């Protein structure tokens, strides 16, 4: 097979969940696109770091600096919903029902996969909780209802259970065990939010 083709296929394989066959399909699809569209695609990728970054407070996506949620002072500053990934945050935002703040952990505790607590943004979360101390904050744990998500949930509860003025709830009801937040439909998410305990 063409070496250049193989090289580009390898690049696509660097993306999560993309195997050699799907990578090849992506490259072939791009070969059928006009030059202009490919330039646009290439520029967007090349400028990614310049134009988009992670919010330094909650680790949502932002246009360099604070994200739209953190910038919005109308949002409830006494609610902090903790998710594993940005895609989970997106799912909850799409429901339009949650008006508090977020914290993206960057994964869930899963020692078998080498994901230890130190690799999550827990220190940053701790600092945020310290800053909010005394304000009667609700910490809503919205990790996935699977083993890693539950482990993370217990860990978070242990971490903050003795913190003054912190009320911990868990988003779970309505979500089936082993499922993923990012694939849950809006009605299920609404239910899970409404009945958190
Ligand atoms: Zn933010």
Automatic annotation (TrEMBL):
Q: Where are the zinc fingers (C4-type)?
A: 55-70
Give the UniProt keywords, A-Z.
Answer: DNA damage, DNA recombination, DNA repair, Metal-binding, Zinc, Zinc-finger
Q: Which SUPFAM superfamilies match?
A: Recombination protein RecR
- UniProt-recorded Gene Ontology molecular function terms: DNA binding; zinc ion binding
UniProt GO BP:
DNA recombination; DNA repair
Q: Where is the Toprim domain?
A: 78-176
Is the DNA repair keyword given for this protein? yes
Q: Name one Pfam family in it.
A: RecR_C
Cross-referenced SMART domains: TOPRIM (SM00493)
What CDD domains does the annotation carry?
TOPRIM_recR
Q: Which domain of life is it from?
A: Bacteria
Record keywords: DNA damage included?
yes
- In UniProt terms, what function does this protein have? May play a role in DNA repair. It seems to be involved in an RecBC-independent recombinational process of DNA repair. It may act with RecF and RecO.
* Similarity comment: Belongs to the RecR family.
**Record's protein name:** Recombination protein RecR
Q: Which organism is it from?
A: Candidatus Yanofskybacteria bacterium RIFCSPHIGHO2_01_FULL_41_26
Gene for this protein? Answer: recR
